[in-house]
Design brief:
Largest sheet: 7 strands, mixed
Strand content: 25-35%
Radius of gyration: 25 Å
Helix content: 25-40%
Number of helices: 15
Number of strands: 23
Distance between the termini: 35 Å
Structural class: alpha+beta
Length: about 475
């Protein structure tokens, strides 16, 4: 199949980005639609990305004192009503089980939209003394939020995620942990997803239901829209008081703990697709790519070619490269285009002439450039190339994001900025009415607040600015 035939299977990324996204996730077999509206089936190629994300995060979580645990999917409705702001925030999205075993349940059970309530209940049972603190646990689980408008990975009724939950003896410790785990997310986005992000505090309107403060991580997609890619929440004593999370302090007094939580989801897969993808399909960040290198034999019927390819595959696998050998009956050109659409970072071509010269050809997915390496040095050259690709992908995405952050002093300038696919930095007086006015006028929301408060006046009312905010349209 010719290259243009492969490309013609997906919509044009510049003129119909939403359709491009839908085409790519289906045709590369990352995902398929589930039989229940709003659900998705994550196929092996897509799930391998999620497993690599999990593996990378687990290393980081362990380094920060977290242990993995698992909590129930079903939560008594009475738990959800203990924290008023929390239940109000999630009520429209909660799926409720009312019957089981052919009988009506005495108490309805909600399918977890998040786990603060069930985890808070268990923490209240387990924590007795200051010696039990800090308590840090992480859960990998599925959650359900009954979304009206859905799109695979970005927003589905059921999705997979990670949620960490911690309890501390002091406000200072909990607040510091909240910001520390946000920094862990930021480092992960940079080094594992090659994805630049903006981080900062959310406005009251945009914070997590039940939180004292929420800090977010926002990534710029190809079309200039923002995607919330991770959040970290300082919960204060809101959930401690609701779920009786108390401890006896060193002075013998009974005190409520201070809690925080943080989470990312399979939305990260959507983020990397929409950050790095191009007109040919996926461009996978090497660290989380299911396949980091694919070997395509050239003139595979000739003596010694497949043997040399298998030997190279073994050498790369021993060096820690996730490598496959495509020895199918399809033509080399067909294979080139298929693996290119799947976003494999490195394609290796090896034929009789290469073997005779003691070399192999590499094609980079990020730049589409080709380079040669010696066969006897493959165990070092390919991992080094993967690292170079990861760095280049980050720098390219960072440059694009920086070029598309603009300033605005008026609503008209803000509207012009988001219409052109930019993030807009603007002043805000702190008034909810002005935040609502921006959304009504420009269909843009406050993503995160800029730590450098450089704006002088509010973009909506012209009064003195209290905070500088990044506004954008968002998924």
């Amino acid at each position: 199949m010719a290259k243009d035939q492969f490309v013609s299977q997906i919509a044009d990324i510049e003129t119909d980005f939403p359709q491009w996204y839908s085409d790519v996730v289906l045709k590369t077999q990352l995902v398929d639609y589930g039989p229940v509206k709003g659900t998705m089936v994550i196929r092996p190629y897509g799930y391998a990305v999620w497993e690599n994300i999990q593996n990378e995060f687990n290393v980081r979580f362990r380094e920060n004192g977290y242990s993995n645990a698992y909590f129930p999917l079903l939560i008594p409705m009475s738990f959800m009503t203990k924290e008023a702001e929390h239940v109000e925030g999630f009520a429209p999205e909660v799926a409720v089980v009312t019957h089981a075993g052919g009988e009506k349940l005495a108490e309805p059970l909600c399918i977890r939209p998040t786990s603060e309530t069930i985890i808070g209940t268990m923490y209240g049972k387990w924590i007795e003394s200051w010696r039990d603190l800090p308590l840090r646990m992480n859960q990998w689980a599925n959650v359900m939020r009954w979304e009206k408008t859905t799109r695979p990975f970005l927003r589905t009724s059921e999705f997979l995620w990670q949620e960490g939950h911690s309890v501390f003896a002091s406000e200072e410790e909990a607040e510091e942990e909240t910001q520390k785990m946000l920094r862990v997310y930021e480092e992960f986005a940079r080094t594992c997803l090659s994805m630049p992000v903006l981080t900062g505090k959310k406005t009251e309107k945009e914070k997590f239901a039940g939180a004292v403060a929420t800090y977010g991580m926002e990534a710029m997609m190809h079309d200039g829209k923002s995607l919330q890619s991770g959040t970290s929440h300082y919960l204060g004593q809101n959930f401690s008081k609701a779920f009786d999370i108390k401890f006896t302090d060193k002075d013998g007094a009974q005190k409520y703990g201070y809690t925080m939580s943080f989470g990312v989801s399979t939305r990260l897969i959507g983020a990397l697709i929409m950050t790095h993808g191009d007109e040919r399909g996926l461009v996978m960040p090497p660290v989380v790519a299911p396949v980091q290198a694919v070997i395509v034999p050239i003139a595979s019927k000739k003596e010694g070619v497949l043997e040399a390819c298998r030997a190279l595959k073994e050498k790369l696998a021993q060096a820690g490269v996730r490598v496959v050998l495509d020895d199918s009956d399809n033509s080399p050109g067909w294979k080139f285009n298929e693996w290119e659409m799947k976003g494999v970072p490195v394609r290796i071509e090896l034929g009789p002439r290469d073997i005779e010269a003691g070399k192999f050809l590499c094609a980079r997915r990020d730049t589409l450039e080709k380079c040669e390496f010696a066969l006897d040095g493959a165990a070092k050259s390919v991992p080094a190339l993967l690292h170079e690709i990861a760095v280049n992908m980050y720098e390219k995405a960072k440059k694009r994001m920086n070029e598309r952050i603009v300033n605005a002093d008026t609503l008209e300038e803000l509207l012009d900025g988001v219409n052109k696919g930019n993030f807009v930095r603007a002043g805000w007086c702190g008034c909810r009415a002005c935040e609502d006015k921006v959304k009504e006028f420009a269909q843009a929301t406050a993503r995160v607040m800029d730590g450098n408060n450089t704006a002088k006046t509010c973009v909506a009312c012209g009064k003195k600015s209290e905070r500088t905010v990044f506004f954008a349209r968002a998924y």
